[in-house]
Each structure stands twice: as C-alpha cells, then as structure tokens.
Amino acid sequence: MATAMxxxxxxxxxxxxxxxxxxxxxxxxxIAPSMFFLLLVLLIPSLxxxxxxxxxxxxxxxxxxxxxxxxxxxxxDRVALLAIRNTLLYMLMAIPTVFAIGLGLALLLKRxxxxxxxxxxxxxxxxxxxxxxxxxxxxxxxxxxxxxxxxLLRLSGFNPLNWLSPDLALVTIAMLEVWRGVGxxxxxxxxxxxxxxxxxxxxxxxxxxxSVSQFWHITLPLLRPTFAFAVVMATIWNFQVxxxxxxxxxxxxxxxxxxxxxxxxKQTFTFSNVGVGAAMSVLMLLAILVLTLVQLRxxxxxx
Amino acid sequence: MTTVAPARTRGQVAEIRRAAERAHLRRRLLWWAxxxxxxxxxxxxxxxxxxxxVSLSLKHTESLIEYPPRWxxxxxxxxxxxxxxxxxxxxxxxxxxxxxxxxxxxxxLVIDPMAGYxxxxxxxxxxxxxxxxxxSMLMIPLAATLIPxxxxxxxxxxxxxxxxxxxxGLAAPMGIFLxxxxxxxxxxxxxxxxxxxxxxxxxxxxxIILPLCKPALVTLAIFTFLTxxxxxxxxxxxxxxxxxxxxxxxxxxxxxxxRVDWGLVAAGMVLVLLPxxxxxxxxxxxxxxxxxxxxxxx
Amino acid sequence: MARVxxxxxxxxxxxxxxxxxxxxxxxxxxFLVLLGPSGCGKSTLLKMVAGLEEITSGEVYxxxxxxxxxAPKDRDVAMVFQNYALYPHMTVFDNLSFPLRMAGEKKDIxxxxxxxVARILGLDGLLDRRPExxxxxxxxxxxxxxxxxxxxxxxxxDEPLSNLDALLRVQTREELLRLHKRVGGTVIYxxxxxxxxxxxxxxxxxxxxxxxxxxxxxxxxxxxPANTFVATFIGSPAMSLFDGQLQSEHGTLVFAATGFxxxxxxxxxxxxxxLLGGDRRVTLGVRNEHVQLFSVxxxxxxxxxxLLIEPVGSDMYVRLAIGDQECxxxxxxxxxxxxxxxxxxxxxxxxxxxxxxxxxxxxxPAATTPAPTSTAAVLA
Lengths: 303, 298, 380
Fold this sequence. Notes:
The complex is a heterotrimer. Helices cover 75% and strands 1% of the residues of chain A. Chain A has helices at 9-52, 69-76, 78-111, 116-128, 131-141, 148-155, 169-194, 198-206, 211-222, 224-239, 243-248, 260-270, 274-301, and strands spanning 55-56, 64-65. Chain A is flat, with a radius of gyration of 27 Å. By secondary structure, chain C is of the alpha+beta class. Chain C has two domains: 4-228, Rossmann fold, CATH 3.40.50.300; 238-362, CATH 2.40.50.140.
C-alpha cells in the first residue's frame, strides 16, 4: 500500500498553478474576441453616455463639463416631457393589445391542424419586415383617399379619418406596431401553450371544468413565466420606438408622436446637443432597468 | 330477480343518440367556422398590405390617383422595376446591405461559438460572472449607446465605411448564450475521449464539437443576418452618404423627397422583401426558431 | 511495466468530497475492479487517473512518474466510456484511427493497425459505417478498439457493459477477459455490478461515499467482508444480518437476540472477548447458502417460522422469521417446507460473521477498516 505523498504541498501548488494557468489562458483566448466587442459596443458606451450627460459639446465644439445643466434642460423642455409621456402612452396602447390578440390567435392555432403552417407563416411575415418598410407600407394604408383604412370606413358608412392628426397619430404608430408584432407574439405564446402538459386539461375536463374555467385556472397561471419574459422584452423593445416615427410623422404633428428615442436622435444629430441627448439616453437606460426589475419582481411574487 | 322493462324502444334510443350527435357536430362546426374566420381575418390583415404594395409596384405612378383603386393592374407595368434596377444607387444599396449582413454573420459565426465553447466546456476564473455580464447586456438598448458609438466610430474614422456599419452588429450576447446552451447538451464524454486520444483543445472545438452544432449555428446565422438586413437606426446615423446607404436607409430617403414616386418605392420594397420571403418559405422552422431563440430559453 | 500508484487522492466539488483520501496500488498487468453503488466516487477516481478531472489533493503515479500535471494524452492511458463516446460524424475507420492520426502516424501504418484491431474485435466489414448504423455491441467494440489501438500502458474502463442487454453482457465479459490476456496492459475497471466484479477482477476495491472499504481478491472479500456494507453488497441475494448482544453464559460466549441465541465458534472467541469490556452490541451475519433448514426439530437448531418460499428452478429461497428478525436461506428444491409452518434452522458455525457495534468485522484490523457508514477516510 502506497503511503505518504512524495512531493511537498508547496511543490504541488507550484506545479498546479503552471498547469492550470495554461488552460485558463486558452479559455480567455477563446472568449476574447466576443468579449472585446461586447465591451466595446455595449458596456463602455453605456458608461460613457452617463459621462456625456454631464458635459456639453463633442461634435461641433470641444467637450466641457456643465454639471446638471443638461438634466435641467430636459426637465424644463416641454418636448422632452411630451416625449416621455408619449412613449409611455404608446407602450400602454401597444403592448396589452398585441398580447391580447397574440394570445387569442395562439389559442386558436393550438387547436387547428389544417392550414396551421400556412397561418403561422402568414401571420409571422410582417415581423420579418424592417420597421422602415412597415412604416412606408403604412403611409399607404392611412392615406386619406386610397388608404385601406379609410376605404373600409367609407364602405361601412363612416367618415374617413385623418390618421396623422394630433389626436390619432400616436394611435396610428401603436397600430403599426401591433400589426407588425402580432405574428411574433402569437408564435411565442403558441410555443409556450404547446409546452403545457395535456394531462392537466384532461383532468380538468373530467372534473367538469368549462373551457373558460380551464383557461383561467390552468392556462394563465402556467403561462406566468412566459408572460413575465414577454412583458420584459416587449417593454425593452417598445421603449425604443423610433423607426416608424421618423418615417411616418417625424415626431409630429405638434410633437404628439415624439418618443424618447426620437428626442435623443433629434437633439444629437439635428441640433448637436450631444449632452442633452446623452442625458435622455441615460434616462432611457435607467427607465428600462427599473421597469425590468419591477416587472420581474411583481410577476414572480404575486401568484 | 326481476328485470326492468325498457322505458323506450330500441328505435327511440337510437333516435335520441343521433339527435345528440347532430347537435354536438353542429356545435363543433360552429366553433371551427368561428376559429377559421378569425384566423382568416387576421391573416388577411397581415398579408394584405404586402399584396397592396406588390400591386402598387406594378402600376404607373399616375394611375395611383384613381379612385376606386384598382387592385390588380391590367396590364401590369414593369417600368417601376426597370427604373429601380437602373437607379444608380439601388443596386449599390443592395450590395451594401448584403456585404454588411454577410460580414456580421460570418464573423459572429466564428467568435460566438468560440466563446460559447469556452463557457460551456472550459473552466476559468470569473467564468460565471463574465457570462452573467454578457447576458445582462441584452438589456442595453441600442438607442442608449447610440451617441457614444457614433462618437467612437467617427473618431476612429470609420464613418461611412463598411467597418463602421459592421461594428455594432458584432456585439450581440444572444449568440454566446445560444451556443453555450446547445454545447452544454452535447455529451461530455465526447470531448473527454478526444482529449485522451490526443486532440488539442482548438481541434476538439473546431472538428468535433462545432460540426455537431449545426442547428444552433443555422439559427444564429439566420437571426444575425435578419437583424442586420432590417437595421435602420445605426446605418442612418453612421452612413449618411447616399453611396453607403443600406436598403433600409435608402428606401426611407425616397420619402424625404418632395415628389415621391410611390410606384418606384413600392418596387424597391418588393425587391427588398423578396429574398426575405423566399428564405422564409424555405427555412421557416429555423427562422421562427431564430427569433424565438432568446425568448424561450430565458 | 504499467504500475499505477494512487496516493492519498481526494476530489472536492464545492463542499462535497467525492473521493476521500484514497490510496491504491495497481500491479502491473492486473485487472483491478472498482466496485460500489452509484455516487461512491469510483468514476471520479478513474477520471482523475485519466487526467479528465483535476486532482484536489494527492498524487497519481504511472510507472513511478507523477502524472498530476500531465495532460491526458501524455499519460499513456486509454479509456472506454459507458456511452462509448464514439465520434458520430466519423466512420468506424476514422474513429479507430483517430488516436493515431492525432499522434501523427503515417497513413500506411494507420491502415495496418486499424485492420489488425478490426480483425481482433470482429469489426472487419463495418469500417465504412457510422456509429449510428451500428448495434450497441458493435459500438462497444469500436470503443474498445479505439482504446487498444494505441497500445497504452493502462486501460481505464467506466462501466463499459452497463448499456448492453443481459445476454450480451455475459458474452462480452468473457471476451473482455480474453482480450486482456491477449493484448496485455493494466486495467482499472469501474462497475456497480458485483457479479461483474467477482468474475472479472484479479482484485476488487469496494467503495462507498468516496472511501475504500475493502481491497482484496474476490473470494477473499466474499469470505471475509470487512464490514456490514461490504458483507451485504457482495453476494446476491444479500447476507442476512441479525442485531443482538454479546453475552457470557457459563463461560461460553453467545450471540443473544430476542428469541434465540447462538454460541460463538472458537475462531471468533478471542476477538469477541475483546469486545466484552465495551459496547456489547453486535451484528451476526450469515450467507443464505450457509443456513440449514429442517422440517422437524433437530439438535442445536433454532425454531423459526417460514414466511415465504420462492422457487427459482435450481434453488429455493426461503424467507424465515427468527425471533423478531428475518433471515433468508437457500436450499435445494424440496417439498417438506410450507409457508407459515414452523421450521428448524441451523447456521454453519464456521461460516458465521460477527460485526461490532460500528459494523466492522471483529476479525478485521480496526485501525484500517472504515465503518460501513463512515464518510471519513481512515488513515493507514
């Protein structure tokens, strides 16, 4: 029987270190390129933008420290405040709508076999279009004379609407997003629904539960994690609404469609107020962060 | 023992059962009818705008102003397509978009599996923290980093260049996450056997593990390519030179003009959407998997 | 020469000690079996010898060469995995030739070596197929071939037969042994199947919870289990154990349990005497083939009650209740026993095993024998 070890602990540690670090080095080399870009494109800029929010200049004039001046500007600027209000309003309009329609369609698709793939493809197609294209398409749809919407209104006996009026413009942007996004969320919810165990529904049916009751007591609670994720993702994406606004309304009329991202763009690239744009960007980051954390906590604890 | 005399004749029982079956069938049919109508309405709502665009693209611009609008133009007018293709810059935009999207995809297909492999199969200090850090970057919106990125890229002299357009696309944590999850499911004994057989770590990565990751790689490729194909904000900001427009920024520039040639725009859109549509039909499952990738795995 | 020395090797995962201070000497050309229930650390130990797991503390020597910090490919070992780990996108030929290709061997040498290994293992016609086209048994042979082709010093096998069906397992067992004789090399073989261990091993190492409970030749371990864990783990059906007390009656030492008592044979006297001064609780063990049954009262036989009779063709297993404890006896098929009826039982005294209060065999040196439930390694 072999007895004691032949090398001292110190010698072992020395050898082990060399052996281990050779392996660690290789691992670091493997992650280096990816990490490099992540740091360069995401991490550092998000820190830098905070720095910028306390400074002025950068494009036209040299950078100089101005403390809270940019932040004061934002909270005093009527347009900025409108932008925040509009963004939140837009999210409140678009997200619940697209979820409701998406879930409804998903429930239907779950039971339909004939034409299932066809419908999935058709519904999903708008999601594949670039926002820009969707926006351009919608300039046709909302056309006062030949736009599909107004044509339908006229055929039903109503008066045509000006979809880009100060009252309706934001609604139009929301509708655009609903049209574009429904397919994606439908498929997401469908995948989640399919993963629910069929036995639960069978047991419920045997126990005499109606379809509505099944939905309320089985489907919804089990979909909670999917909803949690969906809401978080939808919030992050929709908070950044920009493309459709720039194409359709450019923030108007009367700033009724000014969004936070649009404001950042305008301040930075049209007015060269880099600092102000940066401040708004930081606000955006914080808002998304807070919203995400709040939602995660709420949805995880309630049930 | 006495037997209970049947309260109804056999014929009556059968009649009752048939009636119940008919009622049941009627209810099912009603449900199917309702379901399909809803789906058809939704489907039409989703697809109709595209068909409208196609029909627009085949019309001469003057005829756009007619009312009631004619749906199927007869005869179809191909002039728009001709004009688009001969438009000096359209093909250039197409090429630009192709170059940018392909480059980002190819580069990511190399560096993301490498990182995924390290996170999945190797051990090193701060492994979990670095991974969590990458994942948390998913939350950072492009708009928030727009300004610093602009200053950086411009400062490096990459404004209006391909590298400038490509750079931000290389930093999506989704790829690392996807590949790591997939590789973790591959049996550990496989790499162990290779290590014992004398293969070096890079060899194991490239020739043993990677070939087994095809589904994940395809998903990543489609997801990445598509994201780049539809990118708008960044190209708008960093490449204002019309020669360096991508299809998205190029098409949007049409709208900025005073007299918009809608037929032309429509034709342009069809051309842009066509490859997407074709690829979608061919690779539908991977497309859907690609966009849902991050979704369900969280 | 291909000796393997495992010196005070431990493996720690976060707060769990998977392998606890294990020391073993594997002799040249020996077929050593690591046996134990799932999770006992045998596979982890094997992987540490292979270099696939880092050694938390301790040393491993292959032919007097410290291999702790040597990469697996340079240790001159080969491994056969439980799930074979064949490269799925390569043909059988490429799988077999892989180690040689990695070593940079010339093409013609590779070809001839693969041909030879294929011949030995009966894989000749399959060289162009892919693993997915092979049966379980064929895949296993390819895995073996891939290990043999390098002619390593040490073969490490991690439950290679557990994925085969019962019939194939028995066949392959014999083939493996023949292969070992033919090809040579030292083998460390891991299994949880004690039949495999008993039939294949030159020596077996019984492990549980990361420590070694006994090392020895199969028959020796069977005849003299070091503690109650080894006693019940080896031998199927398991040994019957009785709880009781040591008592001194009229100068004789007896094992006393509720309802019966058994005088201890001479060879156990001295060890039992030593226990009288302390904890007198003991466990008596008897294997089922050493229990004699009589349907009528016999001298020196204890009365018991038959609970269950299970005929299995060549034998009959009879479950009995003696006092308030149960026992299993094996006998030839006979018709004089009835379930529920009384039966008279006599244990073959020279085959009795006595274990102390901690579960250790009274005949085993206490200093080096771990208690059955011990999680701490006993230092030699």
